């Protein structure tokens, strides 16, 4: 009896441990999923705590399958949970693989419809829309749980929305709304309908749909986003008073306290739209002083930079505020635009500052002697210095009535003042020759015109700069024709002054008939000399072709080209990149670990001093022996801490976090293109 009693106790304890493992896995998933719905995720990476919970859910589910087998009571639940975790972690390739395995392994499971739903979402994320449509049609053609059907119709609506098939999308969304009972599912459908109406410029309908979310019990973030989109619709309708009223109402709702800075920024935008730029500027300043590193601060800095750049033409201040955007949380589009704007602004400031220096040096050369040793710019405080000299003379005239001690004290005081004056007067010595200064001034006078035309695309500023260049350097027979042609292009493109365009064309043809621009306007074709492509150009093109093949998943063809580059010109940078790309492709795309390790070895051997050698070294070194705690079963799945192909060889059966195909292509492009 005792024997059976102990066996029963062991069975009960093991069952409890079994259930608790899966219970904890679901608990981690739920915590991550609920938090993911309540925060606005910036950029591509999820917050660390969400990643941690999803990873814990995967680990515990793997542990359950590993310890209790594929046929255990919760094995199908656990495998489905792993697929859902990968999807929510944005690891869509892994999600597709796991969910596909689930459907094959457990065809009779009660969770098959849910697995198909998540697999369809994975297909869409992996740009396999056709597979997703077929799977959803199969799912919704038979009897299915109402919740699954609602989500299926919503996914179809979302898919057609992405393809800009708005009428079809609305049909599926209406089907979802007609059978949905849950507020969250209804809210998602209403919101997407609002977005479709907004795209169709049906702003009244869009505002109504966004407003319907107010009456639903949905995550606060979704309600906030709906009301902000309602504001956008009202602005598009030019109903500015209603938009302002709604924004101020949101500022009185304490539930939106985390978004107050963004709401206030929207009020600033509203003022700008109505033409009150100064009030908007004050609002943005107030937001910057009131809040710290959040989305509203970043947006306000961006809009301030825009005002300084485009309204005021103050590039120095624009640079300062664009730099603030770069260092704060923000939308990807705002962040990327800020990075581009700051590059342009910096380029302009560099040209402008050099021109200012050239002008100062030209003035100094005109004022100073030919040796340039004592040349100086007349200081703006020269009148003040003259007044000090007059004061000194007056002081000396009174000195005759003073005692010797007083005279001595006065001399010391005046000497001290004179010394201070000399410190204040800064002599600017011109370190360049007159010819160097003139060449620089000429070069940057033309560069600033080219910058405004070609990069900044400000025709007015470009035209003014070209006119200045022509008036200052009329004898330049190379760049003056180019400046005249650029002016002709500006007036012709603007279509505001056809007479000026015609007169510039006539001037070019008359004065510079044999210049490239004169010949072009005369209709004379110039013979172009054909030059054979250099070996470098050939390798670059071949490498680009290999990249395209990788994106198309034609891995063997890509490897053939990469190996060809590596062998033909082993001394070039493209050979190094190709060697690295070969190893990377074997490891991440083909999962051929032995060949990946061998490729990394070749890379390290052939290019030991390259930047890729260190990467290769980390890949091929042997992993440390893993020490298992006594309390843990030795067959428990362990998470790899290092991305080492050697680890993969020793742990073939170990589930691991895989890089998605799209991410891998992005990484290889980014890493291999760095010079």
Which descriptors would you attach to this protein?
73% helix; 0% strand; 675 residues; single chain; Serine Threonine Protein Phosphatase 5, Tetratricopeptide repeat; disordered C terminus; disordered N terminus
Explain what you see.
The protein has 675 residues and is mainly α. The protein has helices spanning 2-38, 48-68, 75-88, 92-105, 112-125, 129-141, 146-162, 166-179, 183-199, 203-211, 220-236, 240-251, 260-273, 277-290, 295-312, 315-326, 332-367, 382-398, 404-424, 434-455, 459-472, 479-494, 498-511, 516-522, 535-551, 555-568, 573-589, 593-606, 611-620, 645-650, 661-673. Among the domains are: 22-142, Serine Threonine Protein Phosphatase 5, Tetratricopeptide repeat (Alpha Horseshoe); 382-424; 535-673. It is built from 31 helices and no strands. α9 packs parallel to α11 (220-236) and α11 (220-236) runs antiparallel to α12. The termini are far apart.
Can you describe this structure in just a few lines?
By secondary structure, the protein is an all-alpha fold.
């Amino acid at each position: 009896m005792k024997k059976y009693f102990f066996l029963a106790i062991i069975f009960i304890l093991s069952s409890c441990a079994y259930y608790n493992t899966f219970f904890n896995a679901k608990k981690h998933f739920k915590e991550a999923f609920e938090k993911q719905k309540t925060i606005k995720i910036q950029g591509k990476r999820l917050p660390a705590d969400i990643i941690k919970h999803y990873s814990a859910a995967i680990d515990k589910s793997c542990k359950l399958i590993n310890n209790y087998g594929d046929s255990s009571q919760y094995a199908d639940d656990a495998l489905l949970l792993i697929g859902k975790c990968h999807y929510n972690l944005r690891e869509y390739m892994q999600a597709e693989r796991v969910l596909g395995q689930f459907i094959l392994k457990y065809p009779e499971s009660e969770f098959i419809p849910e697995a198909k739903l998540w697999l369809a979402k994975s297909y869409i994320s992996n740009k396999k829309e056709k597979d997703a449509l077929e799977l959803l049609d199969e799912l919704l053609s038979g009897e299915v749980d109402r919740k699954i059907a609602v989500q299926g119709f919503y996914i179809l609506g979302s898919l057609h929305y992405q393809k800009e098939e708005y009428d079809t999308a609305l049909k599926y969304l209406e089907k979802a709304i007609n059978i949905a009972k849950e507020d969250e599912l209804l809210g998602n459908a209403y919101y997407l309908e609002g977005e479709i109406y907004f795209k169709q410029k049906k702003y009244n309908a869009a505002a109504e749909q966004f407003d319907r979310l107010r009456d639903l019990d949905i995550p606060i973030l979704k309600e906030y986003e709906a009301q902000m989109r309602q504001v956008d619709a009202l602005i598009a309708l030019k109903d500015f008073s209603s938009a302002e009223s709604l924004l101020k109402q949101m500022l009185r709702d304490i539930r939106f306290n985390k978004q107050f800075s963004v709401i206030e920024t929207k009020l600033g935008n509203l003022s700008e739209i109505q033409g009150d730029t100064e009030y908007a500027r004050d609002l943005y300043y107030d937001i910057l002083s009131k809040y710290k590193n959040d989305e509203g601060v970043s947006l306000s800095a961006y809009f301030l930079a825009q005002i300084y750049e485009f309204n005021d033409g103050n590039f120095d201040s624009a640079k300062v505020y664009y730099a603030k955007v770069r260092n704060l949380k923000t939308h990807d589009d705002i962040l990327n635009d800020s990075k581009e704007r700051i590059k342009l602004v910096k380029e302009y400031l560099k040209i402008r500052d050099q021109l200012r220096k050239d002008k100062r040096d030209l003035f100094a050369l005109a004022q100073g002697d030919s040796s340039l040793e004592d040349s100086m710019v007349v200081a703006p405080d020269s009148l003040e210095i003259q007044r000090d000299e007059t004061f000194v003379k007056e002081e000396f005239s009174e000195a005759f009535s003073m005692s010797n001690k007083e005279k001595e004290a006065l001399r010391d005081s005046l000497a001290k003042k004179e010394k201070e004056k000399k410190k204040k007067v800064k002599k600017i010595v011109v370190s360049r020759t007159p010819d160097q200064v003139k060449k620089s001034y000429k070069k940057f006078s033309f560069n600033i015109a080219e910058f405004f035309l070609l990069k900044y695309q400000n025709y007015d500023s470009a035209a003014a700069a070209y006119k200045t260049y022509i008036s200052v350097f009329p004898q330049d027979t190379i760049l003056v024709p180019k400046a005249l042609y650029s002016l002709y292009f500006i007036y012709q493109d603007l279509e505001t002054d056809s007479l000026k365009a015609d007169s510039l064309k006539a001037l070019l043809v008359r004065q510079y008939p044999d210049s490239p621009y004169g010949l072009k306007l005369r209709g004379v074709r110039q013979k172009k000399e054909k030059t054979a492509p250099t070996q470098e150009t050939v390798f670059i093109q071949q490498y680009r072709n290999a990249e395209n093949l990788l994106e198309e998943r034609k891995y063997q063809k890509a490897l053939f080209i990469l190996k060809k580059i590596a062998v033909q010109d082993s001394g070039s940078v493209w050979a190094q990149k190709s060697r690295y790309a070969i190893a990377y492709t074997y490891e991440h795309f083909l999962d051929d670990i032995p060949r990946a390790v061998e490729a990394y070895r070749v890379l390290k051997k052939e290019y030991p001093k390259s930047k890729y050698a260190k990467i290769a070294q980390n890949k091929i070194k042997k992993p440390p022996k893993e020490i298992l705690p006594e309390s843990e079963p030795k067959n428990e799945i362990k998470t790899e801490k290092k991305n080492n192909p050697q680890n993969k060889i020793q742990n073939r059966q170990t589930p691991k976090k895989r890089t998605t195909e799209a991410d891998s292509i992005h990484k290889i492009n980014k890493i291999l293109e760095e010079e």
